[in-house]
Amino acid sequence: MLRYTILGTKVMFAPSKILVRTLFESPILRNNSCKTYTFNDIKHLIENPLSDKILVDVREPEEHLEYAIPTSVNIPVNTAPGALGLLAEEFQKMFNFGKPETSKELVFYCKSGTRAKAAEELARSYGYQNTGIYQGSVTDWLKKQSHKLSSKN
To answer: 41 and 116: one domain?
Structure first.
């Protein structure tokens, strides 16, 4: 097995496989825990909005148009995975709202939580260290608060 260190990352080459292990000194790993939000936390956030927290729907625009949790913005992780890495002007043109500052807390949700976790990890790679996930996501929201979902149609 061949071993190299490239930009602080240990890279080990094995026959037909490349294994990459990020060192624990990485700023992403130093603070790699994100907050987990429950239905009640999200409900409280919607009823008492905070300027330093942004609820981010990472589903596709069609899904967001069908229904969305109130106050959320849509940054689709599948079709725009690099969105948070865009320059502010490019982000504004693409999404028609301002790029969140890295100091803001981004609280991600999707349909069931899988895309939210992926988006949270991407956000960290772009310098957003204050992140959270509503793991129940829209599925949980629909069960508990469907009469208050905002329709974007």
So the answer is: yes
Question: Distance (Å, rounded) from C-alpha 106 to C-alpha 142?
Answer: 21
Is the four-CA dihedral 74, 77, 83, 84 of positive or negative sign? positive
- Helices 39-47, 137-145: inter-axial angle, 10-degree rounding: 70
Per-residue model confidence as pLDDT tens digits over 84-136: 999 999 999 999 999 999 999 999 999 988 999 999 999 999 999 999 999 88
Number of domains forming the structure of the chain:
2
Q: Is 60 left (phi over 0), alpha (psi -120 to 50) or beta?
A: beta
Tell me whether residue 153 is in a domain: no
Give the DSSP letter of residue 113. Answer: S
Catalytic residue among 110, 116, 119, 138: 110
Placement of tokens 């508990």 in the chain: 144
* Domain co-membership, 5 together with 58: no
Indicate if 20 and 49 belong to the same structural domain.
no
Which pTM does this prediction carry? 0.75
Instruction: Answer yes or no: 34 catalytic.
Output: no
